Amino acid sequence: MVTGAAEHGLVLGPSATRTLWIMEGYGFFIAGFLITMGIAERSQ
Q1: How far apart are CA 19 and CA 13, in angstroms?
Q2: Which residue in 5, 8, 35, 37 has its CB near the most CB atoms, within 10 A?
């Protein structure tokens, strides 16, 4: 698992890996925000 991550880091480079993590973080944040707003709208 760790070796696989290291290999991917070597193949993609640190910038690509960092970009992927940032995109994932924003994706989860936006998804959670939309779900929360959807529940809030439905409860009113």
Answers
A1: 10
A2: 8
